[in-house]
Amino acid sequence: MANYDILIVGGGVIGLSLARELDRLGQRRIAVVERGRIGREASLAAAGMLAPNGENEEIDDFFRFCDASRKMYPEFADALLTETGVDIELDRTGALFAAFTEEDSEHLTVRFSRQTAAGISVEDLSQTETLKAEPSLSRSVRSSLFFPDDWQVENQKLLTALESYALNNGISLIENAEVVSLITNGNVAQGANTALGPIHAEVTVLAAGAWTSLIKIGETCVPVSVKPIRGQILSFAPQERYFRHLIYSRRGYLVPRADGRILIGATEEDVGFDRSSTPEAERQLTNAALEFSPTLAGLPIAAACVGFRPFGEGGQPVIGEVPGFEHLYAAAGHFRNGILLTPITAQMLAQSILQGSGGPLWEQFAGVVSPPAEKNTAA
Ligand SMILES: Cc1cc2nc3c(=O)[nH]c(=O)nc-3n(C[C@H](O)[C@H](O)[C@H](O)COP(=O)(O)OP(=O)(O)OC[C@H]3O[C@@H](n4cnc5c(N)ncnc54)[C@H](O)[C@@H]3O)c2cc1C
Fold first, then answer.
1. Ligand 1 centroid to 76 CA: how many Å?
2. Does the residue 96 lie in any domain?
3. What is the number of helices (H) and of strands (E) in the chain?
4. Within 6 Å (CB) of ligand 1, which residues are found?
């Protein structure tokens, strides 16, 4: 098989966006090697929320990292539209965090004071204001917080755009080629052994999502600690459009798509790579849906999806050079925020690979992303 300058293992949003970024910076002879079909795992199952405010209660460096990536999305979406003609449906309507119980209201009070003190754009809406913003919400809603800076994208279209970019720009997409182990010479990575044979490369990047830790070097697994956290998510396809905002509660979230679909997510289960959809999850998510709105009662479930979020050790993404090796990098462990963190991850890692570490993003966020671990504790 051909030799490449850069071989990226894993064709999810992280691997594909890195390939694009490297190409934009002038790098050629890039390949993405994918075990199955491009973009069929966590990146497809995701809800597409770009919601650092709804997702994070703490205003810390990780929040700022997420928010910096969110701010890159308008330019990212415009560039992808120009490059590929694919509109990734960046929706900036904002998010509501709704309270349905007394405990929810207490939680929102604390959140509101913490987030306003940190200078975050947030409005405290009464019941009437909440129902004015979203008339199809349940009348039992008590109040909500409105986050104008929490957005969403259609992640399926994001995958289509990134795949089109690769196809239009000579990036090789090698499908149905599971990487079993890396090719090394001493501590220097030189590509990967795949189901279709060896692929040699100057630089190898591990971006295999929840499966990253399973790739081997000789007899041992690569020193990158990532484990799967299963997420189940339901979708409904009503005839009319009921909601405009992304809506959170403490028991789930509701994501309205431009085509009218409504996603209700999501479970968080530490059950390994079990792909089952379970009746317990269906019950939990249906209850969350009914709490949001009785109008959803009686609607058939259009789809029940399962995905494996890649959980990096300590909950942090693992981005950077793999210690103890040369020409080997990792970008994995993005857990609940991989769609949100796509542009910043691609920029930071492309910078590292092409220019060596450094640059303003690394100066600001090096502490937030774990370097790959010395020892693989997840495998
Ligand atoms: C239900 C759910 C909802 C979510 N909602 C959101 C959200 O709203 N917002 C957000 O920001 N994030 C969300 N996420 C998280 C987000 O989906 C992930 O963080 C992100 O998709 C990770 O991207 P990835 O490219 O690392 O992984 P993946 O998309 O899983 O891609 C990894 C790829 O590597 C391939 N691969 C694995 N092993 C090998 C191998 N040995 N050889 C070759 N290829 C291999 C896989 O087949 C796969 O295609 C959600 C996740 C789930 C499950």
1. 19
2. yes
3. 10, 20
4. 9-15, 33-36, 40-43, 45-49, 178-179, 207-211, 215, 231, 233, 265-266, 307, 309-310, 332, 334-340
* Whole-number Å distance between alpha carbons of 301 and 296: 10
Determine the atom of ligand 1 nearest the C-alpha atom of 210. Answer: 30
- 299 lies in some domain: yes
Read off the CATH number of the domain in which 342 is found: 3.50.50.60
Burial call 154-177: b when 16+ CB within 10 Å, e when fewer:
bbbbbbbbbbebbeeeebbbbeeb
pLDDT band at 377 (very low <50, low <70, confident <90, very high): very low
- Say if residue 15 is in the same domain as residue 138: no
Same domain, 301 and 232: yes
Do 97 and 141 fall within a single domain? yes
Which residue's C-alpha comes closest to atom 50 of ligand 1?
46
Read off the pLDDT of residues 221-267 as tens digits, 9 standing for 90 and up: 999 999 999 999 999 999 889 999 999 999 999 999 999 999 999 99
Maximum pairwise Cα distance, the chain? 67
How many domains are contained in the chain? Answer: 2
Given pLDDT bands bounded at 50, 70 and 90, which one contains residue 361? very high
Q: Are residues 189 and 286 in the same domain?
A: no
142 CA to centre of ligand 1 in angstroms: 35
pLDDT at 298: 85
* Residue 210, token pair as written in the block: 């929840």
Per residue in 66-84, pLDDT (tens digit) is 999 999 999 999 999 999 9
Q: Which among 33, 35, 72 is the best mutation to test ligand 1's pocket, defined by most ligand atoms within 8 Å of the CB? A: 35
Average pLDDT over the chain reads 95
Query: Does 79 map to a domain?
Result: no
Q: Which one, of 145, 147, 182, lies nearest residue 66 by Cα?
A: 147
* 246, 132: one domain: yes
CA of 333 to the centre of ligand 1 (A): 9
Task: Tell me which residue range forms the domain holding 193.
Answer: 4-47+156-225+313-365
